[in-house]
Amino acid sequence: MLLHLLVFAPFVAAILMVLNSKEDFKASTHMAILFGIVFAGMSVALVANGNMATTPVEWFHIPGCKGPAYYYLYSHGLGAWMVFLSCGLSLVALISARGHLDKNYRNFAIGIFALMGAMNGTFLAADAVLFFFFFEAMVIPAALLIAGFGGEKRKQAAMTFAIYTLVGSAPMMVALWYLLTIADNSLVLSIVLAVQTMPQSAQLLVFLSFLLAFLVKTPIFPFHGWQAITYSEAPAPLSAILTGAMSKAGVFGFIAWMLPIFTLDVPQIMTVLWLGLITAIYGALMALRATDGKKLLAYSSMSHLGIAVAGVFSFSESMLSAVLVLLVAHGISAGVQYFLLGVAERMTGTRNIEEMGGLSHTNPVFGFLFGAAGVLALAVPGTAGFIGEFGVLLSVWDMNPFCAGVVGFCMILSAAYMLRFIQKVIFGTPAREYKEGPRASALEGFAYGVMLLLLLVFGFHPAFVTNALRDLNDSTEQTAAIDEEAAVDEALPDALPVEDEEAVEAEPLESHIATSADVAQLDSSLTAAGFSEEEKKELIRQVIETEANMAKATAAALEKEQSAQPTVKDEEASND
Amino acid sequence: MTNLPLWLIPLFPLLGTILLGTIAVVSSGSKKGAAENIVGGLAVIFPAMSFACVTVLACGMPESGIRETLCNWIDFPLLHVDIGFLFDGLSRIMLLFVTGIGTLIALYSIGYMHGDRGFARFFAYINLFLFSMIVLVLSDNLLLTFFGWEGVGLCSYLLIGFWNKDLKNCKAANKAFIVNRVGDIGFLLGMLCLLSIGGAAVLNYDIFNQFMQMILNGGHLDLVFTLLTLTGVLFFVGCTGKSAQIPLLTWLPDAMAGPTPVSALIHAATMVTSGVYLVARMGKMFCMLPEVLLLIAFVGMFTALWAAITGLFQNDIKKVLAYSTISQLGYMFMAAGVCAFDASIFHVFTHAFFKAALFLGAGAVIHSLAGEQDMRKMGGLLKKTPVTACVMIFAFFAIVGFPGFAGFWSKDLILEKLVSNGPVIAMPFALGGSVNVPVGMILYVVGLATAVITAVYMGRLIIMTFFGEYRGSKESEAHIHEAPAVMLIPMVVLTFGSIFAGYLWADMIGITFFKDSLAAALGGAEAVGESILSVHHVNPVLFAVLGTLAALLGMFIAWRVYANKKIPTPKDSGAPEGSAAAWTFVWDYIHVGFVFPVRVIAWICDVVVDKFLQAFQWTLGAIGEILGDGASTFQVRRVRLQLALSITGVALIVLVALFAEGIVGIPDFVFKLIDSVKSLLGRVI
């Protein structure tokens, strides 16, 4: 029921908003914020409840396809947190927009609710067609909102955004249709089976079309052409939602749809990994030069999401937890930064950071919030961003230490541009004379404060976030027991990528080489395989090294256990 | 035996931060700001309470230390970290002076910051700093240490840029944070490297030590030597950032833009020594890596010498002390580089007292001169501010290593260890053969020369500030006053420290208390290092005599050169000029060499790549539009043409469908087409 509500109720809310008079600013704000609170509450309940699924209902039959498309929602840790971001940020956006708009607030709220419903649908859909439907549907309310409420170049921005992202996912639509002509139905497992029966070249084409859609949505260099103009022209509360929740659809697509469906080979993985890393550096460098505050934040988002994508394609065991924490942290921190920049824009009447300055003296509370948001975005330890970035760094290091060095370089650059941003906006003296616009209301300030607090809480106790993933396997079985067979089909593939990885990594470790006889045997078999003397030596040395490391690790773990007990005794003794 | 939980120690400054931060934010709207008495009282009480906790715990600490795990922090498949504390000999000594000196400096700041608009904000930051610093030294694993490590960096950033109306201060703060970030990435990558050698739990110090012991005992060193060396280098990069060593030292002189108590606390006594602490904490690992040790020793040596020479050229009293700090940190790393971790921590300890006293004295001088920092406008202050002058002169004796003062014991100990522990390395010649280089002797000679220079530049500072005639304007002379008692008391206490702190480890008169208290915590790292480095014992008295002679020589030179020198009336800003500037800013120029390419690449990205992508994207759009316009010409009201087009279309579809065996087969048909084209191409090529 919760799942249905989260997807459909926002649309109902959007329609109910029409009941308000356009003139009555107060009534429409109250109603919108009330709805927003309800949805945010429901998203918290969703996160708290663990995995859930609805009964699949046959939706419609696409011509030419074998099976039907289902209306089927499924919530797992990743999707639930993304829904939390979408609902939470929408609520704060509704609060924040009170200061930006007056008469048109009603229409803005309608757009926001429609967008929220579409986003929730994207993150909860268990059926590929349903997913695609919502994935595309997100664009329309967002583009309309930009066109209606944006800055000077809003028309151009809306057009660029809509056309770029729709064109980007057009190949995915064709590919999906082609997949469905082979697959039994549009659930993940049947698609996986279908992909495996396809010829190699077809697999590659389908892979590329899916990839393109998600690369554009995230966005990843060189498909980021729509991003800067869209984020800078959109009204600040909407920019916050776009970067905090909607851009996550790209990374979400990589994890929830690409990884289960395709069996990737090393060149493909490395290509996407490097695309992510290049995006991270490119975004950071562009942010160093940006003078438009909103563009700066847009490039900063791009940089962070590049790191996230690199993390996804690093394929280590801790990848999923790390990326999830990174996404949640980035969603909240980028969101709050956009909201605060919106307030700054409102107060100073410009979004050019060269023309701001001195806000911490004219408005100390704002200065505090803005500075804190900036510092929390820097991935200082103790914030959620740090946990995410460190986790990603760890996975990437596992894959390739050099790539980890690149991520480290990005972290240095991020300090450079973020500190410049903080300095230009709140420190120094005002760069020009201006008449101060409306300040942030107490409610707004409170909402931003809560967001900052959440970053700290998740930074000290990331288990709040990562525990949602732990349920993934447990409740899969429960769901299987309750639901129809289709549910089993659906739920298993989600756990697949992780398991696959474990299996692959476990293999070399299983071969225990303890004695010299084993080494001799290895040596002879290598000779038989046609290795030269030097290569053999090197290989054997590596095997022994791995063996020794493992032995050490095991011993260390044992010793830790043993040493833990005497310490306890010591303490008891000392207490006496 | 006491039952005080360890988490009380960081809790007090944290409470202080929250409380004072709330006061700062709430009172920011009012004209007057919060009452200074209350804020100042709160700001001192919290650090004092954690100092009390530390003292109680320190007295009853068992030999092996106290361990306490609060809760789990990160639990990823590859990484398991708890929030836990470790109170042993090493963290005990660090905590004692961090909280103790922190309390004293908070007290001093009440006087120094009197009347400042950001009074409450300042103390909130100071408390936050103490919290981070306590976590840094008290944590039982590397990741939590890193939390404190970046936390102190953040506070340093906030406090350097405390007077943020002036963009110059903001720039200095940004520089400090970014340069530190470079070092921090070294720390981060070092942790990753360590994790890949030692597994998910190795970040915990106990497990880390066990792991290193196991490598050593099992003779596995060869297997992991390369990775371990990389780890050591990466961690040392982190240390060079935080402890301002070559090449990441440029931020510390700029950091003097902050209020002087901050310079005393963060940029002299506590934060900058955390690099030395980390090396000592991981001594078990470093002692197995002779190459890394050599690197540490030489970096320390060059930094000590370079910074001492730079100190000679400065006119700003705080800048002299900043370079002096860098130079002293160089000594500490030299000691760590020959595995004398206890000696390096001992110098950290004594240095904290006399350098804090010097900085607070300088602060009192600046305070009495209403913000004047240029030594050329000072002089003759001995009569006007006698207490401050005495404090500074005693601390001066301590830093130059005058017999009996704190610096004498610790610095001479380091110099002695350099000779006794210094390795001898066979350097191969290009033409064949090799020569044995006594690295220890090289380090010793440079260290001794640095000691002479130290005495010269410190003598210059004392002479220019307190002796001779007052060189400032007549109006300002009338306003010179001694600092208030609230500032003098901490200074006097620290002066006692800088006289007597050295007697905790006075080898010559048989006291080795300090060494013994650290022995358990360092876990025999020294013994391992000494066995590798082939230690030979030397007579400490000889070194004491030589060290004393160096100090006297330096003081004599300073007296001859500066006592009667006519100092020109300053016109410029006080920054060094000409070749002195070239020497002072050489590392800044080198940094520019790294920053400039990044700027160029950023420019290329912005102006070339992005514009090209934009152009490409709009060209595609334009082509689409033109095609659309073209297609719309078919949309005319001519029934016959429309009909013909429709029929052609249907026919085409039917044909394709026939070839492809139904609509569903179309994609297959397309793939077949592609495949056949491919094979055709393949044949052609």
Total domain count of chain B: 4
Considering residues with a beta carbon less than 8 A from a beta carbon on another chain, report the largest interface and each chain's count. Answer: A-B, 81 and 82 residues
Oligomeric state of the chains present here: heterodimer
Query: Helical stretch count of chain B?
Result: 28
Number of domains of chain A: 3
Low-pLDDT windows of residues of chain B:
none
Side by side, the strands of the main sheet of chain A go: 1-4
The total count of strands of chain A amounts to 4
List the helices and strands and how they pair.
The complex is a heterodimer of chains A (576) and B (685).
Chain A: H1 2-17, H2 25-49, E1 52-53, E2 57-60, E3 69-71, E4 74-75, H3 77-100, H4 105-124, H5 128-137, H6 139-149, H7 154-182, H8 188-197, H9 200-217, H10 227-233, H11 236-246, H12 248-261, H13 266-289, H14 293-312, H15 319-348, H16 359-362, H17 364-377, H18 384-399, H19 401-426, H20 442-460, H21 463-482, H22 485-510, H23 516-528, H24 533-575
Antiparallel strand pairs in A: 1-4, 2-3
Helix pairs in contact in A: 1-2, 1-4, 2-3, 2-4, 3-4, 3-11, 3-15, 3-21, 4-5, 4-6, 5-7, 6-7, 7-9, 7-10, 8-22, 9-12, 10-11, 10-14, 11-15, 12-14, 12-22, 13-14, 13-19, 14-15, 14-18, 14-19, 15-17, 15-18, 15-20, 17-19, 17-20, 18-19, 18-20, 21-22, 23-24
Chain B: H1 8-27, H2 36-59, E1 66-76, E2 79-87, H3 89-112, H4 119-138, H5 142-160, H6 167-198, H7 205-218, H8 221-242, H9 251-254, H10 260-269, H11 274-281, H12 283-286, H13 290-312, H14 317-337, H15 341-368, H16 381-384, H17 386-400, H18 406-421, E3 424-428, E4 434-438, H19 439-466, H20 474-478, H21 485-500, H22 513-522, H23 525-533, H24 540-562, H25 578-584, H26 586-632, H27 639-660, H28 666-684
Antiparallel strand pairs in B: 1-2, 3-4
Helix pairs in contact in B: 1-2, 1-4, 2-3, 2-4, 3-4, 3-10, 3-15, 3-21, 4-5, 5-6, 6-8, 8-11, 8-13, 10-15, 11-15, 13-14, 13-19, 14-15, 14-18, 14-19, 15-17, 15-18, 15-21, 15-22, 17-19, 17-21, 18-19, 18-24, 19-24, 27-28
